[in-house]
Amino acid sequence: MHAPKDADNTDSRAKARRIHVASPTLPDFEALLPQLREIWSSGELTNGRNVAAFERKASEWLPGREVVAVNSCTSGLMLALRALEVQGEVLVPSFTFMASAHAIVWSGCRPVFVDCDPETLSVDIDDLTRKITPQTTAIVPVYVSGNPPDLEALERIAAQHGLKLILDAAHALGSTCRGRPAGTFGDAEVFSLSPTKTITSCEGGLVSLRDADIARRVRIGRNYGNPGNYDCELIGLNARMSELHAVVGLQSLPALQRNIEERRRLAGLYAKGLGKLRGVRLQQVEEGNASSFKDFSLRIVEREFGASRDEVRRVLERSGVETRTYFDPPVHRMAAYRPWCPTRPGDLAATELVARQILDLPLYVGLREDEIVRIVSIIEAVATRATVRV
Length: 390
Fold this sequence. Notes:
alpha/beta, 2 domains
């Protein structure tokens, strides 16, 4: 039995109204075709001329650094840890994507989870300092949603204690701290180029390194640790970027500044609409810093807002608006980590609180102003109903 015509139209309208939480910003396909055909006919499919060209162009954004292209941010973190010979305990926030901790474990190290600051969502500097022990060898802070952590403090702490500083900058291509671009801090910073990021190579990552010899080790490491004579210098892996992915990255890179400016403009519209709502806490960016706004993150404080984060999310979902809860659960509560990374009650209190409150709204180049108005009005309506209910 066929559905009535009106039902089909209603379904079509509902689908048209759906707003996804993220969408890739892709270069023009026709512009890619000549280079793709050239790669296809050359037979040089990986770690070739286009990868080298992509690394050179990316390094223009990162003055004074060596840049190595890899197949993912996760493998880049793994290789940076291995190339820097990190062992023992590594401090990392629990309020992060799972890959931050995965890379540490795969490198044979032990993650020690650090609390977050509930306003910036970045690593809590005081908690991090308290957790440094003689076994601590490195720090892996994170740019949550592209927001720079306190990089000056982190560099100072790393220098004082003789620790390696490796930044998970997956979200941060285009972010700045005190005028310096993300990617120019610490021993290593690793960016993601997956589809939700500020630019994409479809899949891939960039490792920005301070030291030329460490960069050489990462280059060797991405090819199994083989320097070319099959006598491996270190235990590497297959983390090579393909030529096809490099071409997409090369074509995407010129749009980075434009993409960042548009994301910041859209984030400003959200902030204007939501910033005065009682019980809504927007992620704070410290003065002098600029976020890439890979995500637009806020917290719903139930006792003030009158409804929980999950209630708000359900209403948005029913209205055709997709959201995410980055990062709930935090890493220390994930099944893979609970058995061997136990935490004491209250040890990560801010992380536990933020994970219950966090909500990420749609943000991407191509999101329309009227769609932001719609999303804001839905949240305002939930707040109004909650006030009436109370």
